[in-house]
């Protein structure tokens, strides 16, 4: 871990210096034009239950209300990157949204009142994006308020175990190689990507000034061959900040480097026996095979909690996300199919440090004794939404109460005569936490979450896109409930320039 920064910098330098294979920049005859686009979306959601149905508001970057009945206005302007093979390109985006919803009266406990968004009982206004991204040769640099995605979220998937699309955006600085880039001398058959991210977790739950460190690196073999295999490793950590009693959790430059290198902070508050901060990670192996108009991708993702010394040892291998995705372009009616299984019940066993030799066991995913908000942001899990977010805790408890699950997921998407659709179904069995003995041997509850999304653009009606979403929950977790959302979206070009 301590050589990560040097390694990524070295890879970038070698790639730039020896990359004679990289396409030359386009010359002055390039006539490509850029456009500043806009989007306005108005939606209304009505539901029959206590909450908005699970897939109606999960994996939506925190932009959807938990309340059963709500209305949302989404406004955005953007300039996208259009020149992938030039030395320089950029994109910018500004997106804001406002939500009006029915009160969530069950979230009025003393502890919930510490959550800063509680003042918006009947609505809120928030920024989803206010950011800029620049690509210099193969190096990507971005800054602003933006979503954080670990790249392991395929369309129609249930969401990555480490960084999904479930939590709201946050202030972020990012630098790296975002696209698969050939390693010099490999003739395009070996590719790398990687990056460093620094972000601010400004929800201020239990503490103030908490920060997020995230880095990743990936290696892919195969290139132009019909079969590719890749390995991705991701490391993330919550660090710094101040407890409510004023205790400093380490906010100096030396603490930053301890976090990057996953070194001990030297005190009980700084995770002396582990590493400074709350550390999580993931590793994913992906096997892809493709033909002229189809592609099959199989993947396995494993979640790591705190101790990275056990990578590859088998301590945590029973847990993970197994998935397969099939895409094809020949027949539009069904052009994508995704199936996944997610299991987190092992957690390296129920006991921690039972032999005083191996510091493992009872990993307690998304929970931490010092960073009590755990792996959550604005009470939504940063990882898979299948692990229940604290926003559902009716007692106002702001930590993860259920992190042992078994889930089966399927997603299907396509286009039927101009009607674009996708549907998903997920069955989740919940087993609470190891620390909650009442749920140790007995299943706590279950839920079947269903979703159907249909969209149609009608050029004769000012080019408006009309959308209908129907979602339902069936089971003992949130009882039986149905939610329906109607959406009208207008997209267009504000100006075009070279």
Model description:
The chain is mainly beta and 498 residues long. It has one domain (4-18, 37-497): Beta Barrel (Porin). The chain has helices at residues 4-18, 54-57, 253-260, and strands at 34-47, 70-79, 88-101, 123-136, 139-146, 170-182, 190-200, 207-208, 211-221, 227-239, 242-243, 278-290, 294-305, 320-328, 336-343, 376-377, 380-381, 405-416, 419-430, 445-458, 464-475, 481-497. The strands form 3 sheets. The protein has an 18-stranded antiparallel barrel. The radius of gyration is 23 Å and the shape is globular. The two termini are 44 Å apart. The model is unreliable at 14-24, 105-114 and 354-359 (pLDDT under 50).
Amino- and carboxy-terminal Cα gap: 44 Å
Unreliable residue runs:
14-24, 105-114, 354-359
What percent strand?
Answer: over 45%
Query: What is the CATH T-level topology?
Result: Porin
CATH class descriptor name: Mainly Beta
Annotated CATH homologous superfamily: Capsule assembly protein Wzi
CATH architecture: Beta Barrel
The largest pleated sheet is described as: 18 strands, antiparallel, barrel
What is the count of helical runs?
A: 3
Q: What general form does the structure show?
A: globular
Count of strand segments: 22
